[in-house]
Amino acid sequence: MTPAPREAEPTASGLADTFRRFDLSSRKAIVVAVSGGSDSTALLLLAREWRDRAAPATRILATTVDHRLRAESSAEAAAVAALCAGLGIDHLTLPWTGRKPATGLQAAAREARLSLLAGAAEAAGTDIVLSGHTLDDQAETVVMRAGRGPGIGLAGMAPATLVDGSVWFVRPLLETRRETLRAFLRGRGIGWIDDPSNENPAFERVRLRSRASAVDQTVDAEAIVAAGRKRRDLAARAAALIDAHGSTPSRGLVRLDPAFLDAQDTDAAVHAFRALLAAVGGVGHLPDLPRCAALIGRAGRPLRATLSRAVVDARRRGIFLFREQRNLPEPTEAVDGMVWDGRFRIRLNGPAGPVVGPAGKAAFGSGEATAPSSLVRAALSAEPALSGDGAGASGPTLLEEASSPVAARRLALPWSRFLPCFDLPLARAVARVVGAPPFRSPPCHGHKGAKA
Prior knowledge:
The chain is an alpha+beta fold. It has helices at 38-54, 73-87, 105-123, 135-146, 178-188, 204-209, 212-218, 221-245, 266-281, 289-298, 373-381, 424-434; strands spanning 29-33, 59-66, 90-95, 128-130, 160-163, 167-170, 246-250, 253-256, 303-307, 310-315, 318-323, 332-333, 339-340, 344-348, 355-358, 384-387, 397-398, 406-410, 418-420. The chain has a seven-stranded mixed β-sheet, sandwiched between helices. A five-stranded antiparallel β-sheet has the order 7-8-11-10-9. Mean pLDDT is 88; it is low at 6-13 and 447-452.
């Protein structure tokens, strides 16, 4: 552990206001992810001081994920546990068990960490996990994304991100420098652990840190905040267009009024269109921006095209979107929690055995007068249904959110796994129009549902 000689605490750090942007006091518990490094250790102390000052009834649970990738990791987790015991804070070590992948280890470790932390939060009865990402991490993220081209990713990490629709991962330190936090710890006489993996040049972020001066000169903290506001504003404008012009004439079928094409806000229209294509097609990322813009430009006349596994059918009655018939999943035995075709989460309410597959041509329905019956049938045929012995005598049984023995909950892609709070207005509009459950409010002041 890095020694920390006691010194004068920084007077202009503004650390007392670390949590001013977040509504956490309404939660009975919060989870703090603590690796033992300087950032997360400082976050833990700041969270305890905030709790003692503003929410004394709130329980703090410190959690340390032990990836078991280094011989020292268990001892480091024990050191964090000892620190927490001295601070009077509950602590839980979360081991990553099982076999580790030979390739993509860093990504797999990140996924494991998120799942373990989210599970700990749910077990503690909360939807909040605090993580110690700093302005230094934010700057590195923006530089890495800038190297991949322009786009909404230049807003960097969001102050809060919803994981699996259930737990908000909150980053209160995104506007704070790492050195400020280390000065804070030194002022309290508290040390921290230096993770040797942070010096491994095999990782892009580590290589970038070796050019720290270049990062500092390239990234403007105020510009990052402004980019976040711009991204949030674009999402809100796109959501307004969907709310004004989007509807669901029949299950699996989305309709946009012809007036959608008359929107003066072209950027918002293209953004909304990209989001709807991802949700209807069941893909985890927004489709190519130039191709989407070109499709909208051609949709003022009769058009039939596919993009991101979604069919775009433009007619005088509107623009219709539905899942194309190609590459649908083969009938397979239902497994609890499985994701079907990227669009549905399957829940098993009975014994194993039911087979789920596309409804196929036997599906039927008439829909509303705003949709041609041929498109209604095409959309229904790509919906999940019980097949084989589980199908009814009159044809396939379409799966609903509360059906039995197999239920299917629709997902609002591309946000079913990660939803940055920047995108919340658009994600909610898309969820409404495709029939997915609504997303919960973030713990950020200024968002609907959070206390001001």
